Amino acid sequence: MQVLARCFALLRELSADRTELELPDGASIDDAWAALVLRFPGLSPHRPFVRAARNGAYAAWKQPLEDRDEVAFLPPVSGGATHTSIVQGPIDEREVEATLAAADDGAVVTFVGRARNRSDDGREVFELEYEAYGPMAEKVLAEIASEAAERWGASIGIVHRVGPVPIGEASVVIVSTAPHRDAAYQANRQVIEAIKERLPIWKRERFADGTEWKRPGA
Length: 218
Known about the structure:
This protein has helices at residues 9-14, 29-39, 93-98, 134-152, 181-198; strands spanning 2-7, 18-22, 51-54, 57-58, 70-74, 82-88, 107-114, 125-132, 155-166, 170-178, 201-207, 212-216. By secondary structure, the chain is of the alpha+beta class.
């Protein structure tokens, strides 16, 4: 059967306004989303925050579709845009800022977490290494960004690095933009604390004496 998939706001930017899908008889809205993600993989991390509609009315993800139905995928109606990724290699914080800042944003707050050359107990560190549970980390990062965006009416960008991180380079960049500074500050702080508490990423410190220490959190 033929189904028309519609996407809006951020989801449209990651995919297309209208996409014709060929689905088997009895397919559900969830199946339509899966087919759309195959074409536009960037949609995948946003699934926990998407609401679905069928023919102009909100609908459950397991609801069956019929031929010529229109299914719509809707991001949260409050808050701003989100951009999250887990990368290997250096992070450009200016690039993250550029993906978010809009003309009506009066405040841009950028937090850069850098690899430092001393551990909490004073030992000399020559390199950090981050390890992530990839698919889960990507999902949780998108959840954290969307929660902060919705609560504070801000746009949120988070990029976390994995693998070796030389001293002085960024391990995580968090950018929050909003019309007013308090919302931008509060959103950034919420993201930082949520990452420390929930993100499945672990840090290994390599010391100058050849020993290593692995601990949770950024």
